[in-house]
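Closing statement on the adenosine-5'-diphosphate sub-project.
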Amino acid sequence: MADEQVADLTGRRLGNYRIDGVLGKGGMSVMYRATDVRLGRKVALKVIGEHLGADAEFRERFVDEARNTAAIDHPNIVPLYDFGELDGMHYIGMRLVDGSDLASLISEGPMRPERAVGLLEQVADALDTLHRRGLVHLDVKPANVLVTKRESIKEHVYVADFGLTRRGATGHRTRGGDFLGSPTYAAPEHLRGEPLDGRTDQYALACVLYACLTGRPPYPGDVQSVIKGHLNLAPPSAARIVSSLPQAIDAVLAKGMAKDPGRRYDSCVALLTAATEALTSSRARETEQRETPQRGAQQWGNGQPQQSPRPPHGPRAGAMPGRPPAQRGPGPVPPPGYGSPAPEPGPAARPAPAPPYQQQGRNSQPSWLVPLLLGAVVILVLLLAAVIIATA
Ligand SMILES: Nc1ncnc2c1ncn2[C@@H]1O[C@H](COP(=O)(O)OP(=O)(O)O)[C@@H](O)[C@H]1O
Ligand SMILES: [Mg+2]
């Protein structure tokens, strides 16, 4: 539909912009790679077609998108450069992110957990900032997360596409009442047209985390199956799909994807902190156990909020044998956050292994000192007794 409605402007000039190529095509607009010839700067230019620009509702949404993009100054939100109308076409100019989007990365298969949380904690921070400003993104999905390698070591992430972003708490629909956006990562309250807030984005972020870790969205299939999954099915287990994942991550995903927003984490960053902890503490535990089996089992098995041990069909290399008995969550699929919130790893859950060198330091007196002191005491007592006897 969009393809017929929005013509390809590649090779054309739009004001001071030279259109160099297409970056992506959405339902209502085309994202171009372009050059601002005044500044000699590469930009990303989002353009909507003339006929869509004539539609008052659509034009309003596009203005909102520009304002919302500009509203937040955050290192992980794509910076807005320009906004306007040229030759009857509305456009938004923004920083060109040289890299790819998360959807392309996920299409290559499951991502390394460290990489996934490294990317998504940046998204989480951007979203929390948005939420503190009273905005809800409402279209958090891999295609709207841009990944660039700004430095050689760390991949930098930009959250993009504020086309559905809303201030306030009502479900986002067209005036005709249609759901806008894709349901693949949409929270139940969003699909139902109920009030929304930052937790709606958190749900989508948990789904994106699931997709990064497993290479597929939590509820795949046709639109009806996807919607049914979000509304009625328990959050699926990521550890069952990728056997090297610790089971603890399932509890975190289940809480982020709780059907009831009240049972989710307090913030997107809290979700990512819990995910990082679930993924890294189990990795540390594995290393610990490989090196010193008994000590490792004792230290890490203490007070970790965990789900039940892996069911009989699912043991695998790197599972956590030192885990305490199950507190909750008896089945292979973790319980939905709905009705039985998953345990949130808190500060008390953090393992604090005492380095062995501390104990050595505390008991470091020379071994001959104690007998020497004892001998001196005995001699003194004998001398005292001799004096008493002599004077008696
Ligand atoms: N600033 C940017 N730099 C580079 N590529 C971008 C940029 N913004 C978006 N894209 C790419 O273009 C695609 C469509 O852009 P987006 O703003 O999400 O439009 P739509 O509303 O059509 O989804 C994105 O999925 C991404 O791959
Ligand atoms: Mg998009």
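The mean pLDDT is 78. With this model delivered, the sub-project is considered complete and its resources will be redirected to Aim 3.
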